[in-house]
Design brief:
The protein contains four helices and four strands. By secondary structure, it is α+β, with helices and mostly antiparallel strands. Strand 3 and strand 4 form a beta hairpin. The chain is globular, with a radius of gyration of 15 Å. The mean pLDDT is 80.
């Protein structure tokens, strides 16, 4: 039987006042921060770090487009549509749901980018 790993989300600080819940591995977090901050890609990075950098860059672009917003209550980066829904109904495990939102968001974007 194949053992399934449970995805562990952790909250990291992207920049001053912006937090995100992610399942990205610990050694890729600096690349994620570099992408979010707008730094260029490092040519010595592995494919995994490049992917983390690209996710950080996508987060920054989505924040500027209004797809993502920084929640005022806890400075967490979340989807704008879910933040509008959360104002009416508040749940205790919001940080876990925001991590799931990011994984769903980027899977959806990846499918849109791949040719049919």
């Amino acid at each position: 039987m194949v053992k399934q790993e449970q995805t562990k989300f952790r909250t990291i600080q992207l920049t001053e006042g912006v937090l995100v819940s992610t399942s990205i591995e610990e050694f890729c977090i600096p690349a994620l921060r570099a992408g979010f901050s707008g730094y260029p890609v490092n040519p010595r990075w592995s494919g995994v770090k490049f992917h983390a950098w690209k996710i950080g860059r996508q987060m920054r672009e989505d924040l500027s487009k209004g797809i993502l917003v920084v929640r005022t209550t806890d400075s967490m980066l979340v989807l704008a549509e879910n933040e509008a829904n959360q104002e009416t109904t508040e749940t205790p495990s919001t940080s876990q749901k925001s991590g799931l939102m990011f994984s769903t968001l980027f899977r959806r974007k990846k499918r849109e980018l791949t040719p049919a």
